[in-house]
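[agent] plan:
  1. take the single chain provided in the ticket
  2. run structure prediction with default settings
  3. attach structure tokens to the ticket
  4. add a short note for the reviewer (M.T.)
[agent] executing step 1
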Amino acid sequence: MSTAQTPARTLVAGVGNIFLSDDGFGVETVRRLGRLEPSRLPPGTELMDAGIRGVHLAYKLLEGYRTLVLVDVVGRGGAPGTLYTIDVGPEPPDTRPAPGPLDTHAMDPATVLGLLHDLHAGAGGTLPDEVYVVGCEPLDTADGMGLSDPVEAAVEPAVERVLGLLSRGRAPAADSVPRHDGDHGRPGPRTTETTNS
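[agent] step 2 finished; step 3 output follows
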């Protein structure tokens, strides 16, 4: 009988709409991760093209993943193609969707994480211990197929950034600056920013 431990499960999910130009960044990054030699991904790592299926992603996360890495466009005012690594942590996001019908085709990472916590409260399951977002500043999210040049150029660095997170099991500490949340003075998610030029 083997006493080897089962590796902790990690989910890397590409989020976004491939029909809205740069919004397809997360999906394309996860597709490229899927083309790598399997040995480059740590044991227990699963890749998911979540696309715009945020509710499906939230339910899947209740299956018991230790780490979640979401890959998506993130508008933070930087130059297009700037990559961000955000250590969200296991706590529910401060910003929650307004009550009312849920638009399952317009779910950003904060909405998915808020829904995940709501589902967990109602249905149980296991929440991830570590949650990261690898985001890219978009140039264009209008109707259209294909990524803009600066966002396309950020895909391979994003692949490497995700691999770095998976190999370390934690977000890079160098150059991380705590961000404060609104007027509350509470530390917010830790962010690392890189511009691809």
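[agent] step 4 note for reviewer: The longest strand covers residues 186-194.
[agent] ticket updated
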